[in-house]
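Tutorial, part two.
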Amino acid sequence: MEFDAVILAGGKSSRLGGVPKSRLVYDGATLLERSLRAAHGARGVVVVGPDPGNLPDGVLNCREDPPFAGPAAAIAAGLSAVAADHAARGGAVGPAPLTLVLACDMPRVESAVRALIKALEGDGPDSTALSATPAREDAPETDGVMAVSGDGRRQPLLGFYGTVALQRCVADAARRGALENASVFALLASLEVREVRVPSGSTDDVDTWDDATALGISGPVQGHDPDGRSGAPQLNSTLEANGEEPG
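Running the prediction step on this input gives:
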């Protein structure tokens, strides 16, 4: 299955004292590293947010415009960056038929991504087909799949969406001036999206330090503040690359 990946890592993390969620550590890896592992196999990958440094070769970085304009604007920026990169490489190959949209604050997300892929490929109980890449003839056409947590909550920032359909949504919102600080549900409202139940806990995210504690995110606490103020806690995100195969 061919897909690109847009990883969202540009929020203010207000309830974490300004500490970037992408730098928090879970089970020996930062949340950004875990998101990159979850996107393993993507044709093109872009991280939308402040430059984290030391990104793997080939992984792009961009910012939403203006910065901190919300996830809808970040999705738009990521799609544009991936399309521009494919164009710069030349040839007839453009963006992949599918785009994985993934927020980087879900430490256990790999199993959820695998469940979505199985659904798209027709291997799971919630199997479906995307109109651009049908898995089987009798499967219903859809514009993508969206994760649903064990307790029934939809997670639009964890889904595979048809790239052309997603670009159409972004272009329409841009024409209406409705990208900045917009709801992602509003951005995706015109899409026919199949909801796929994913493993329990795989969509749990980090918004507060209590969330971090409950999810087992740990590490030496150091003073850090991206704006130069003191006193904001941060988990030590130093990690030596170990060369293990993602996923």
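The mean pLDDT is 81. In part three we will examine how such features are distributed along the chain.
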